[in-house]
Request: fold
Amino acid sequence: MSANINGEPTNAEILEAMNEFATKVDQQFVKINATLTTIPTQDDMDKKLFNTKGDIILTVRKEDVKLRTLVEILREKKVLTDPDIKRILSLEPFPQLFL
Reply:
């Protein structure tokens, strides 16, 4: 940077420095904007949460079928009594109601 006779920067030098600063600020805004566009929205998060909840319920239901099959096999082999079976099958997460 050269200075004029008074030792102060010239108008052209000031403008050049301001232009460099503005360019760097613009580059930072571009980076920030790119980051913001990759952040998932609340709607995106809700959809993923809903899908995950559905997947978990399906998995637990499959395990429930396995448990009921096992209980039936143990009933056939006379390992479990009817009160034992009612007690087991009335447990959560998918209790079976006996009327």
